[in-house]
Design a protein that fits this description.
About 25% of the residues lie in helices and about 15% in strands. It is built from 19 helices and 19 strands. It starts with a helix and ends in a 7-residue tail after the last strand.
Length: about 600
């Protein structure tokens, strides 16, 4: 009941803020306005309820209150709701079946029914799970609960992870436990199945944690919490939650060995919004997903201060390194310090979370866990953007140091990858897209090979494409058609190739901005080879220019096809290349 009371007072406060913001001819900060007696009573009541919920000490240490508070005033940022940040975790509900970012997307046979509602039984079809028959997974919806059955046990799906765009969808479940008061594990675990949206295929995911060496289920009737903690290593709490939630109240271990995550309580939400759900099983909906406060810091003091801008973080006003850390604290592969317990920045010895504005450098909270190809600088695994970025010269460029949000808009999902729809450069507003090179040319126009392109030309791209095209083509040695399927002369296909992969779902683009030369594929053959930008972006899966065929496999790079293709490419881009001459010793 007390949380419903908080919601009522919060809604009233939000309405009051919105009315105050709409008042004409009043440019004073909202926190210094003369509120009427009713508004003051509402604020005081909210303060009282917050103190009841979190206590005096909790509020002094700042509290994460949730994005709905923020959007009540900052309505121009409502595009956040449609971003992957907002939708990446969600409770599966039948009413949102096959709705991108809201429900389960898995539909392997593309018949318009999601595979759980269809009752897909991997024991009855030929699939990547044939080795586990007759105990292969069975998907179902039972009394509205999405469920995965393995052997004799039903595993309720607590939430879906991913399933947006053309990436992958994973499912997090509770495990039946004979000695649990609820009948299930306290922690949440990745199920051994993954659906790839690009290919509409189901693939195994960490099946060794779920099946024995002879492919029988590890969990069966009578499994205890202690057995679960010792066997089920794919815990979302330990490995992932730090970058998929809005604030961490505490992290610890239960006596049985499972991980105990205490989130911040959601006190303002729509009841049927699947992005708010009960993660830790205490009966209350939680602040899960990446919300406003992940980038701006906890908002309680900002709200209790009547919108005081000094009590919230604005990344645009931070230094370049501080601003990039806001994104980098999640967009990187890292482990906590000092014990490497968790998969995100965290002091696991003092139960201390890093967040924007906490007064400590991000570097004090993590150690890199980057996984690289044999050259030691190209990312093998996905989600290593921050480390890649700082292996480039972009954030340290003395003339124009780059911040992540100079290219990406965290509030606007209009463009793919949330690429900014416009940039203001030297006082000129330039409409921008990745797929027609205007995003890159907005800054690079007037420099180097692009010195004859002006920013005014880029701003009026459609009327100047006949001038821009030949200049870019002279740089790329390819025809100019960046907005077509092939992406010829598209800057990002060469400088940001998809060299990193996640369970064969799709590639993640590199943020080193370095073109990976074909010579590296040949140099590291004994180590299994490695990708090169030319092959990844075009010459492996898009075009059969030299009669070698096509090879869409992005993980194997030492096969005959890869050797033949890289050898041919080196005629153009190599030590004696007719277009570009490379020198691996100097990194070019």
């Amino acid at each position: 009941m007390r949380y419903k009371t908080i919601i009522i007072f919060t809604l009233a406060l939000a309405i009051s803020f919105s009315i105050a913001l709409a008042r004409p001819n009043n440019n004073a900060p909202i926190y210094s306005r003369s509120w009427n007696k009713k508004t003051v009573r509402i604020v005081n009541s909210l303060r009282t309820k917050l103190f009841e919920t979190y206590g005096i000490k909790g509020l002094e240490e700042k509290v994460f209150v949730g994005s709905e508070f923020c959007l009540a005033c900052h309505q121009d940022k409502a595009g956040w709701r449609k971003t992957k940040h907002s939708m990446t975790l969600r409770k599966p509900m039948e009413k949102y079946s096959l709705v991108m970012g809201w429900g389960v997307i898995a539909d392997y046979d593309q018949n318009g029914v999601d595979d759980f509602e269809q009752g897909l039984n991997f024991n009855e079809i030929s699939s990547a799970f044939d080795a586990f028959k007759p105990n292969a997974p069975i998907l179902s919806v039972k009394n509205g609960q999405y469920t995965i059955t393995i052997g004799d046990l039903d595993y309720p799906v607590v939430f879906v992870n991913g399933g947006i765009g053309k990436w992958r969808e994973r499912y997090c479940v509770r495990i039946p436990a004979v000695d649990s008061p609820t009948g299930y594990s306290k922690d949440v675990y990745f199920a051994p199945i993954q659906y790839n949206l690009r290919t509409h295929q189901w693939v195994p995911y960490k099946t060794k944690l779920w099946y024995t060496q002879d492919n029988k289920p590890k969990f069966e009737n009578g499994t205890t919490l202690e057995e679960i903690a010792s066997k089920a290593k794919a815990t979302f709490t330990k490995n992932c939650i730090g970058c998929h939630t809005t604030g961490i109240r505490s992290l610890s271990k239960w006596d049985d060995g499972e991980w105990k995550y205490t989130p911040y309580v959601a006190v303002l939400y729509n009841e049927d919004d699947p992005h708010y759900f009960d993660y830790n099983g205490d009966g209350l909906k939680d602040l899960v997903g990446v919300g406003c406060e992940d980038c701006h810091g906890p908002g309680s003091q900002h709200i209790l201060g009547g919108g005081d801008p000094t009590k919230i973080v604005n990344p645009a006003k931070l230094s370049v390194d501080e601003a990039n850390a806001v994104c980098g604290h999640c967009h990187n592969r890292q482990r906590s310090v000092p014990n490497k317990t968790f998969g995100w920045p965290y002091h696991d010895d003092t139960d201390t979370q890093w967040y924007p504005g906490n007064g400590f450098p991000l570097s004090d909270f993590y150690v890199n866990a980057n996984e690289l190809w044999p050259d030691g600088e190209t990312s093998y695994e996905h989600n290593q953007h921050y480390a890649e970025f700082y292996r480039s010269d972009k954030p340290t460029n003395p003339d124009q140091p780059l911040r992540c949000f100079d290219c990406h808009d965290p509030h606007d999902p209009t463009n793919k990858h949330q690429i900014r729809t416009s940039l203001n450069v030297d006082g000129i507003t330039i409409p921008t897209k990745n797929d027609n090179d205007t995003l890159c040319l907005a800054c690079h126009a007037g420099h180097g090979d692009f010195k004859d392109i002006t920013k005014e030309m880029v701003a009026d791209y459609d009327n100047n494409v006949n001038i821009i095209g030949p200049i870019v083509s002279a740089h790329t040695h390819h025809p100019y058609a960046p907005d077509r399927i092939m992406g010829l002369s598209r800057c990002s296909l060469c400088h940001m190739p998809s060299v990193a992969n996640a369970q064969r779902a799709s590639g993640h683009v590199s943020h080193t901005f370095k073109v990976v030369p074909p010579e590296k594929t040949l140099k590291y053959l004994e180590e299994g080879g490695m990708p090169n930008a030319c092959a990844v972006s075009c010459h492996s899966r898009k075009v059969n220019l030299w009669g070698f065929g096509l090879d869409p496999d992005m993980l194997e790079w030492n096969e005959d096809f890869d050797v033949d293709t890289a050898t041919k490419l080196m005629e153009y881009y190599g030590p004696d290349g007719i277009w570009w001459q490379t020198d691996l010793q100097s990194g070019h």
